[in-house]
Inverse folding.
């Protein structure tokens, strides 16, 4: 039985999630609550649709992969999630927390780290202004090898440009 409301005695987190869905114009359904809970409660910030699906399977949520894709896209349209597509073409989703940040992506293991640097942001604005542009939005992704030992050493290392 699918309920469109949190159960009686539901946690305050579930109630807050239901309110967030309603404010975003979405009907409150158990699959939407489960997916939103994953993003809000997990220490992981970036998920592919497949990772969300596997996480739903791990908690015995009866949600199919097509439903996960549909929910993720609804959350993007409702501005609850942000979707990024990095090299390799896989889309990753993260909660829209209302602040801009850029990404460092490990080309070996796929780790995604967020960062914000005021000097970089100011320089991008200056470059755009010098060229007659008014920036509306931007995304910066830097690709390299993360600090994990298994990513730092490998027989197939490519020569990387020095910084």
């Amino acid at each position: 039985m699918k309920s469109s409301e949190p159960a009686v005695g539901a946690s305050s987190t579930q109630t807050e999630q239901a309110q967030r869905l309603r404010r975003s114009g979405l009907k409150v359904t158990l699959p939407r609550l489960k997916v939103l809970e994953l993003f809000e409660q997990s220490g992981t910030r970036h998920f592919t649709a497949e990772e969300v699906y596997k996480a739903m399977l791990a908690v015995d949520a009866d949600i199919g992969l097509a439903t996960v894709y549909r929910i993720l896209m609804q959350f993007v349209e409702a501005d609850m999630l942000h979707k990024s597509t990095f090299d390799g073409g896989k889309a990753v989703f993260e909660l829209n927390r209302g602040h801009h940040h850029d990404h460092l992506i490990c080309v070996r293991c796929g780790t995604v780290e967020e960062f914000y640097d005021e000097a970089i942001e100011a320089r991008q604005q200056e470059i755009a202004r010098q060229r007659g542009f008014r920036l509306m939005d931007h995304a910066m992704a830097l690709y390299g090898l993360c600090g994990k030992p298994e990513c730092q050493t490998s027989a197939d290392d490519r020569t990387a440009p020095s910084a």
